[in-house]
Description:
Belongs to the carotenoid oxygenase family. By secondary structure, the chain is mostly beta strands.
Amino acid sequence: PFRVEHPAGGYKKLFETVEELSSPVTAHVTGRIPTWLRGSLLRCGPGLFEVGTEPFYHLFDGQALLHKFDFKEGHVTYHRRFVRTDAYVRAMTEKRIVITEFGTYAYPDPCKNIFSRFFSYFKGVEVTDNALVNVYPIGEDYYACTETNFITRINPDTLETIKQVDLCKYVSVNGATAHPHIENDGTVYNIGNCFGKNFALAYNIIRIPPLQADKDDPMNKSEVVVQFPCSDRFKPSYVHSFGLTSNYIVFVETPVKINLLKFLSSWSLWGANYMDCFESNETMGVWLHVAEKKKGRLLNIKYRTSAFNLFHHINTYEDNGFLIVDLCTWKGFEFVYNYLYLANLRANWDEVKRQAEKAPQPEARRYVLPLNIDKADTGKNLVTLPYTTATATLRSDETIWLEPEVIFSGPRHAFEFPQINYKKYCGKPYTYTYGLGLNHFVPDRLCKLNVKTKETWVWQEPDSYPSEPIFVSHPDALEEDDGVVLSIVISPGAGPKPAYLLILNAKDMSEVARAEVEVNIPVTFHGLFKRA
């Protein structure tokens, strides 16, 4: 299953600038779109990879493009618009990169004189609002986001940009992840770095309540529910997502650190960007933290394990005094984003493979965290669940050392961008997860994984490059995997149509239908299905 090659380099099309559409285009359907599938698939990703002659350098720098596939009575349309962020609008106006992005420094305005340039050195960093990572609902509104304090409200029907929102104005965080948890009543939870007590750093969990009868913007009622401490006062860890069950919040603190001194200094003095502010702590390993969700109380249990990078939690659930935490990990402390420069990703296949061989190895893992600790058990494995090989050993210094159960592993093959039947199974015992298979960082298959038996189902076609699979449950579903999986696929080599929306039967990952479009679609990261 692991020996698929990409010598033709069709994946390079994922990183090519495209134009937005003035109005939706009709997609050509083969197969039959399920009649019950009504609504829109909304996804975000970069769509502009240079401004004039100035290139963006990193995967997370291209300007945000919002995509929508609409499903109605078996017909499909496709639409896309650039998000009118400050970063985009100013780049279009000045015909140059104006705002520093994740891996691209924006040079000062060449038209300014030496005095105004000198003073702009002391303005500090203008933080990017390039909302290229995800889109999610708050109340009745939809927001495109990245990981800074700025989120951008968009119209999910027309894809027009409504307004920029600064989270700092509502709640005490310096930024928030692009992976909030959204409960069935509409409550939104997220996590972000912040300055805690006496200048020490911390991580705040924020809660935004659902829309109330008074129709007031729920953002006005957002609040911090709990604060997790930081392993290093001056260097917060990079946080991309977190775990949530009905009673607990799980935060995994990895050794990928943000050097605040670098982050807060004048970047313009040394031409820095966000990537320049990351460093690895080679000795801490990984610390896991748990809090009670309703009381907002930290559990005083110190979970420790060996180093990995973590971007995506698969799911988390409670079972008989244990928390089961399923993660997509990358082994080691070196930052995986170091391998996601566009020059790496656009390289020829042999070079892509050579690079990936040095990178942290991907592995999907299950960790089991005991919640009830008895000092009498020092030296022993506390995990008594019959169905897992994961262990948690109480050490004499009162830390608990965790060893995982591996749920998916293949050499340089990642199970990533995990999705589940979120509405019914988030935070609960579950069986299936759907992921994007990365082959040396190139997305070349869709994979369904049974986390209990480790059985896998794969969809894969030559020279075809899919996106994160999104599960849509059948309206009358009886089982967890009754439904379809949606993914945007580009197939630059094969046939006349460069891209299509793929619909798979979630049971066995077999094709149900596809809706082809006449335009290329660059890489997208995350998104959602909005039912009609």
